Amino acid sequence: MHRTITSFAPRAARVFAFAALAVGALAPAAWATQVTFRYQPVIGGVQSVSVAGTFNGWNATDTPLADADKDGVWEKVIDLPAGRIEYKFVVNGDQWMTDEGAAEFSPDGFGGQNSVLVLGNDPVVVGTGSTVKKIEAPKFGLRRVTFKFRPEGEPQKVSLAGTFNDWTVGKTPMADPDGDGEYAATVLLAPGSYQYKFVVGDNTWIQDTKGQDADTDDGYGGKNSILNVDDRFPSISVKRGDGQIYPDGLQHAQGANEINNRGGGKVEFTTRAHLDDIDGVDLVTWSAGREAMTPMHPVNRDKIFQYYRADLTMPPGETPYLFRYRDGAKSLYLAAGGLRAAPDSGRFVYSAARFPEFITPDWVKNGVIYQIFPDRFRNGNPSNDPDFKEWYYQGKTALPAGGSLNTDFQEYYHLVKDWNDYQGLTHSPWTKDGRDWMAFYGGDIEGVRQKLDYLQDLGVTILYFNPLFQAKSTHKYDAADYRKIDPHFASNEEFIAFVKEAKTRGIRIILDIVYNHSGNSNWAFKDAAEKGTKSSYYQWYEFKKWPLPDGWPNVGHAWKPADYYYCWWGFGDLPDFNFDLSRKNDAENAIKDITQAQVNVPLVDYLLETTEYWIKTVDADGVRLDVPNEVPYWFWKVFNERVKKAKPDAYIVGELWGNASDYVRPGVYDAVMNYAFFRDPVQRFLGMGQGSAAEFDASLATGRLAYPSQAVEVQMNLIDSHDTVRFLTQVGGNANRLKLAAMFAMTYVGAPTIYYGDEIGMEGGKDPDCRRPFVWSWEKEPARVALHDYYRSLTKLRHAHPALRTGNFTTLSTAGLTYAYRRSGGGEDFVVVLNAGKQDATVTIDTAPWGGKVDAADMLAGKSEPWSGAAQVGVPAETGRIFQLTRKR
């Protein structure tokens, strides 16, 4: 993502179909109720607060709050009809905050929660100083809910997708066992409101107009269904050892996260059972006529299921297998079609041919990633600073008369001479909102080369560059030429030399690529725009009408480029590529099978050959793919094949903001930027101290379960980026919170990712403010030096201990706002204890796994303490401790 969107919620909804934040709707009523919304921010520098919810279509700006008396509490009184509403507060236009004092909550579809308010006819105060009473939790938290659907025709596959399963197609299949045309799926859900739709095949989404309680906009002009899970649905109780195995939801779809071929004959099998329901699970296999039974060990859990895993070395050929569930004196077998009493039919079959191996690069598992926005890192060669002589800047380097820009059709590109002057990014005198995306600072590759010592000393082993291609903009997601480094960064030859030098220091390179669209300054689009159908590149894009308005590209009046050609979110400078000649742009993305597409061969060949150039000739090690869900799925399969052939250990990571299990699998991507299962929960719990450790752990576990384990080890675990408010700004400048997040990143599963400048406490609001120039005077400021040294100590610790990089992860404690976990492997054992609260805390660590007595060495404090029995470990507020454990003999 590279352009500012009004709010995060609509953008995320676009990324994952139908996962809009709204999960409720107003019940009709004949009267209105006075509601006072109050919010006291926990961070400084707040410019605006509003409330968004089901009552205003989740609009982030329609219902602003005001702090008229300057007491720090923002307030708004509105009249709403009685009924159920869901809401969040929105700070500074893009920070969506749950009201933690709400009476109840509902999943928002992104790992967080919406606040819920049920209105009668009495006025209420919501938020700070709330008068709403908390609702008692039900005695039994799970309810048995059956969804039914009668589709047209005879579909091959029907499934249920919603906020309860991260809108993942196929995760909750529906079945028609009696063949009467009605499909059903039963799931266990906690009380609350849930959005959902039925999915026929892979991409036909259908609203449940018969079974829903209400509906809400899905973000695409349609509706999501809403079901309120309440006392209408029977509660269920499960108990270990009672001989009763609860069957609903037990399934084995042989997905990439259920059968994981790790290579070398090693295969990981995963299944699940309801929490606290069974004694155990065994994997039963048959090979050469012999039956073998392998106990499966519990790994992760979410709010409903406990997951079990077994690792086997599989023989060549086909191997039948089943799962044996044990509880008390009873055993049942999970086979194709469900649970059964005997293992004599319905066996699943594994073979390496059906489940190809999935190898992710070790250098990412063991690395520390550093993201650089090239124009803002360092100006090492002023002689290549932008001079705006390229054709696409003509007519765009002077302010119009009056000095005010109409950004609908006017552009003003300019160089800021003072590297340290970033005020214009947010307080520009010539734009309506004060934000300036057209200001260059002169950062370049030579500047990065000059600071390789700095990066190496920091512990960086991987550099992830935002786009370097020649382009008009500062962000370079609008490529003018995909095969040239922008001349104001470097020449291709200079960049190749830089890559070689970086590699002598053990630093790998990831390049950022966007293939959904080019820039309107791209040579191919220019040719098509000027020549129309006579251009060899006209079909590379999808024109709706031609010619373009007079004067293009310097049209002297407001116009709508989307009326002339498909372009990303209507931005005319980002024309979409036309991958599939047989269907419109907005219909081609969901096509998974290349045989179902009329492939635009010249375009696809050009893009694939371009990628090979950067991987083979330039020797880049990986690619980060921008807005990849807006490119046909089949293309990424072909892309993967070409990239891995060019460099088998190349890293492919996508910019996907939610559950990306359809993409993170063999033959597609190695990983994604881990917004959903790292950045978002880290920001909420460790950054803001919101929610609980148990909720934090559940969000993390969902992420570890969503993808094959070797993909989890290479997730790009970021805490902020060029698309988000900087973490330190988000938490009101509280460096302790940033240090807490950094400690977690450096000790958790996956690749810790530092956005340039975080290590010295750089701040910044929403784009473009989050892209300020690097503060190279940081060594003169003690607070920045201390933070830098802290980051350096964490990277050094991670590099020194394999268990912190690739060891097993086990949750130890989730008490209140404290969180403890274990990383172990290779003869090493670590315990990390985090305190997200504002008060000092004591965490209980059971030492039984280590024989009851251990020496615990505090790795940052440089001292040891003895632990025994139920050890009481003190942790100061908003901080954490890392211990290496040695068992006492």
Entry summary:
The protein has 889 residues and is an alpha+beta fold. It folds into 7 domains: 120 residues, Immunoglobulin-like (Sandwich); 87 residues, Immunoglobulin-like; 85 residues, Immunoglobulin-like, CATH 2.60.40.10; 300 residues, Alpha-Beta Barrel (TIM Barrel); 51 residues, no CATH class; 54 residues, Oligo-1,6-glucosidase, domain 2 (Alpha-Beta Complex), CATH 3.90.400; 85 residues, Golgi alpha-mannosidase II (Immunoglobulin-like), CATH 2.60.40.1180. The chain has 16 helices and 47 strands.
The tally of structural domains comes to: 7
CATH architecture of the largest domain: Alpha-Beta Barrel
Order of strands in the sheet with most strands: 37-36-35-34-31-28-39-38
| General form | globular
Give the proportion of residues in helices: 10-25%
Strand content: 25-35%
* Sheet having the most strands: 8 strands, parallel
Alpha-carbon Rg, integer: 28 Å
DSSP, total strands: 47
Report the CATH superfamily of the largest domain. Answer: Glycosidases
Average per-residue pLDDT, rounded, comes to: 90
**Roughly how many Å apart are the termini?**
54 Å
